[in-house]
């Protein structure tokens, strides 16, 4: 009886861990990440003023504004620095 209960709990724990991992947007080993400063300079060259860059779900999450007052809220692949998803004016990524 105890072994059946333990096996059930183990199965539930494995399924929960698998679904959490599947929710990750980026799956890049930490050794392959480019520094945040490289992304900051890339965005500044495109006319953005970066408020913050943080890691979120294995990606870089950026909040920035441009000279026209537009806002950027987007996720970037930490290895390629390519935009994953984006939203403007507060919409989009969380």
Question: Would you kindly provide a written description of the structure presented here, covering whatever features stand out?
Answer:
This protein is α+β, with helices and mostly antiparallel strands and 94 residues long. Strands 1-2-3-4 form a four-stranded antiparallel β-sheet, covered by helices on one side. A hairpin with a 6-residue loop joins β3 and β4.
* N-C termini distance: 43 Å
The strand line-up of the biggest sheet is 1-2-3-4
- Strand segment tally: 4
Global mean pLDDT? 78
Alpha-carbon Rg, integer = 18 Å
The biggest beta sheet reads:
4 strands, antiparallel
Unreliable runs: 9-22, 89-94
How big a fraction of the residues is strand?
25-35%
Sum up the overall morphology in one term: elongated
Report the total helices.
Answer: 2
Portion of residues within helices? 25-40%
Give the H and E element order: HHEEEE
Going by helix content, strand content and strand pairing, the class is: alpha+beta
Q: Which features characterize this protein?
A:
94 residues, four-stranded antiparallel sheet, 2 helices, disordered C terminus
